[in-house]
Amino acid sequence: MSSWWEDPGTDWGTGRPGRVADVLSRAYETPQAIRPLIERTGLEWRAEYADAAARTTWIMILARAATSASVLDLMAEVLQDPSSETSHHPLEILLGPEQLRAVQGRRVLWYGASITLLESTAEPPDPGDRPLDALEAITSSAAGLSDPQAYMRAMNDAVRRLAMIQVGGRPRGTGVLVGPDLLITAAHVFDPRELPPPGLQDVDAVFDFFATPRRSPAETGTKVAVTEFICGSLPTPGELAGSRDFRAPPDRLDFALVRLAAPVPAPDGSARGHYPLSDTQYDFAAQAPLWVFQHPLGEFQKYSKISTPTRNAAGTRVRYRCNTMNGSSGGPVIDERGTLVALHHYSPGDINQGVPISAIAAMVRSGPHAALLNAGAAPPARARAADPFSVRELLGRPFVHRENLRRYVSEMAAPTGGRTLVITGARGSGITYSYSLLAHVASRSTITESLRQAAPAGLVAFTVNLRHYVNVPVAERRLRIIGDICVNLGLTGPHEPIAQEARNTTTFKHWLHSRLRHSDKQWWLFFDSLDDAVAAGQGGVNELIHAIIDLAQDPQIPLRVALGGRDADRFADGADAWPQRDTVSGLNAADVERWLRARAEDEGHHLDDARLSAELASLFPDGQPPPLPAQLAPRLPAVLVSLLEGGR
User: How many domains, the chain?
Assistant: First the structure.
């Protein structure tokens, strides 16, 4: 192993390290070419780099990168850069097999890159190094002789096809692609006792959710909605009770096969591919290397190596030892050749357990969806993805009326739409809840055709609630808000210092302009709790908001600004002459009636008029002011259930 790559004491001016500096100085000859690469790696650009010759600059950069164990990170960025392609082969040879594998792994994790190892990544051996006949032996037949290219392809495929499952916006498990728009996971991720599972309208699969340089978790990943349950099987009662149940019958396989709203291309635009569901029994006794890929606790992608796999006599469960946590359920078990062999689903505490894919495939083949197992079979017709602007519930909570807000957000999302939205109303009228619609639309933007045309990489919405900054000293408030904006935009990490040019409002505006000008996302920034213009604007916050509104007026910048609060109008004055204005006036009986009837239709029911009138009379008593939305909305789900049950 070439330990000098990670040794802080390496002399990067001589020997093989010096050859690295030579290669890089030919590929990147000017400070203008070097600096973006350094910043993408997360290294600090220093003034002395700009004044030195290219080779000297690279020696200094490599030495500093070595002190923070970032040299291989830097090499990953170089190999990912198509402009330096002529340097890639020499660098791969200098890296050698061990270091190259580590670098390629970084490319897979950061960029979803499709990696194919070179046929040879080492210099040709001296003829005297050739092995002699009869001096080598097979001493462990189970160890085999593994193909490194197959190994890298297997890892690459798993990274591209893995998804974190979110239910109601919260991480619940892991899933994997088994068709262009088909995902499989553990049934209990959705519901351990009911199939089809309720509430699929709130389920998303998030692909590419891995640690990515210069991106916050909020903007990491490619989200696509789950739109249809196809088939599945529940876990056993013993597994639900947490007992050691290894004798599962063939109709208790704990899996759910679901359809996505659309196929999800990889970040580089290529097809992700998918794993076939094969009913051929896998030979777990051969002890081939196996891994569980997963999103434990809703974290970035992880994998754990499996040991001692054992299948039960019925072929319905396989046990093994590895590391998993809540959220790992539904993770694929993959062998070194990239074969999907099992679905992880359970642990009673001291052992892990999965369901062999062969058993799942046999169940699917015996049912009405057998055509899904046939390669190239045409997928059945799929219902159009729901219009995100027409949503009636958000995270299980009613979203009633707000037709003006829905229309304004839809219009503003268009490339030629307005740039500023002002939302005003009385306390408790639902101003803050307006952000929920923005977040929902953003979560569906990559699968909504009109939004994809406006922003190919989707919408990102985040909120700055000024109420959360009341305990921050006035003198520090503006800088704290700038820092939070930078984190949500993915321009800095949560604990990174703010760039010097971003600390002043005027220079921050120009700095932000340069960062967002070429973004393929559309950004929505919602300033909330603008209830007192004087108090909320203290410490330069008013000037900051005006600067951001002014920046959003530039057609080159894909930025939209929403202002919410009783005094929001005053913040918009002078910054945008034509903002969209939405006044939240509360809910009336007609609004609630329309919502209840629409939700009943969603469930395939019609409400009894007399019972509905009685419920509305109870919610809106004669002679009394209507209840505030914040008080009324939580009561509506129970009212809906009562009406549905009474009509059966």
Answer: 4
